[in-house]
Amino acid sequence: MHQNGTQRVYEYWNELRGQHAAPARSDIAPAALGRSLAHLFILDAGDVPGRFRLAGTWLGSAFGHELTGHAFGALFGRDDRMLAQRVVDAVRSESAVAILDLTAKADPERLLDMEMVLLPLAGEPSRVLGAIHPCGQPFWLGAFPLGPARVTGVRLIDPDRPLFNLANRPAIPLARRRGDGRPSAPRRLLRVIDGNRAAAIVQRERPALHLIDGGRTGDDRR
User: Fold this and answer.
1) What's residue 114's pLDDT?
2) End-to-end CA distance of the chain
3) CB 92 within 8 A of CB 195
């Protein structure tokens, strides 16, 4: 987690859940997150595609339209929509935390890097809490709406393990297609193995990357 806002949202969620895999939707008091409130969103994650149930004012301003009611995948470029949905499914089904590195353009000369966090919520219907924080505040942000975001890295975190040196943990870069961006056949971009749990995030032709979460011991939690 490279952004302070991302870590603030994660720590609030982690404190609320206590000994449980995730807090309930009713436990969330958005006002407690202060400056991150405008960056928050809640997804209806039980259906495919997931949809924005609520979205903060910063998100509407940055992307130039209200996101509430829109499909989650519409936030992304066409090539990344399936990946984004599979990450949401992994967060919901595995009670994992996902961090996505994003880049979006307002025009060819105006780019913004952002960090998204996705956090599971307990109960039915299925919900996912999320937030997007920008890496910087360019002067043009809000005057020039961002286009669809591109996913440049994904990290999955088991919140029941110690998060040592979290801010310095590198993102996993995603392999990018050459040419016109249309794959000739599906291939698997990312598979995450965390302890005894395995979650295949993207199913595409052949494994390009395996991430094995190991080397951390102990039961301490933040």
Assistant:
1) 96
2) 14
3) no
